[in-house]
Amino acid sequence: MHRQLLIALFATATLLTSHESPAQEHNPRGQRESILLVAAPRLADVSFARSVVLVMFPTDTGPSGVILNRPTELMLRDIWPDRPDRQGRTDTLYFGGPVQPNGLLFMFRMTPPPERAWWTVDDIYFSGDGELLETLLERPQADSSQRFFAGYASWAPGQLEDEIARGDWHVLRIDPDVLYDTEPDTLWLRMHQRATLPRARLEPGGPVTAPRRFAGQPGSIRANGHLL
């Protein structure tokens, strides 16, 4: 973990409130489906090399998300050294991305759907809202259904499509098991193998054909030949 990030977290313990974070009001039927990005070996950006990224699509900005396989040396409780009520939280803090690295965002399961959160898949949501965080932290021990991130990643409109088109990323559909994977050191390799595994596709009434590649058309992202 970069020393700058450590200093920022200890100094401010800043929470991204609903107007500062990429979290949006819960509306799964109106939200574009989230995806997983798997960095191609050619991607040289140190922030994203060999990364697996959860990406969501808010309606008013470009894509935003968090890196899933960058655990830091910090636990959640380290953010609040003067809060005895938080010292039972042994959750690992993950580096989510280079944008606002002193902000805390979180992924969690909840029923019924919460407000001020993005839906990702099933009953899994993502947010940076301070009030919602307080509700989640009422449990004194680490909760396997929750994951916490310092910072996030974002792209300008059209930027991510361009990066995929030039081969920087592979695209996979959301897998709940990947979101809570417990072996981050090997996650990229396993996801890269999954993303590059040749897959046959059966056309109705026709022969088995190879899967299509991402077409790179403006405003489109494809996973295994399917438009997302």
Question: How are the SSEs ordered, and which strands pair?
Answer:
Elements: H1 3-12, E1 14-15, E2 35-39, E3 52-56, E4 64-67, E5 71-75, E6 92-95, E7 99-109, E8 118-121, E9 124-127, H2 130-136, E10 147-154, H3 159-165, E11 169-173, H4 176-179, H5 184-196, E12 201-202, E13 208-209, E14 222-223, E15 226-227
Parallel strand pairs: 1-7, 6-10
Antiparallel strand pairs: 2-3, 2-11, 3-4, 4-10, 5-6, 7-9, 7-10, 8-9, 12-13, 14-15
CATH architecture: 3-Layer(aba) Sandwich
Overall mean confidence score, pLDDT: 78
CATH superfamily: VC0467-like
Helix content: 10-25%
The count of β-strands is 15
Task: Count up the helices.
Answer: 5
Q: If you compute it from the alpha carbons, what radius of gyration comes out, rounded to the nearest whole angstrom? A: 18 Å
Distance between the termini: 33 Å
Strand content: 25-35%
CATH fold annotation: VC0467-like
H/E order of the elements? HEEEEEEEEEHEHEHHEEEE
What overall geometry do the principal axes of the alpha carbons give?
Answer: globular
Protein described:
The structure is a single chain. The protein has a single domain (3-177), classed as 3-Layer(aba) Sandwich (VC0467-like), CATH 3.40.1740.10. It is 18% helix and 29% strand. It is built from five helices and 15 strands. The strands form three sheets. Strands 1, 2, 3, 4, 5, 6, 7, 8, 9, 10 and 11 form an eleven-stranded mixed β-sheet that branches. The longest helix is centred in the C-terminal third of the chain and has 13 residues, at 184-196. The chain is globular.
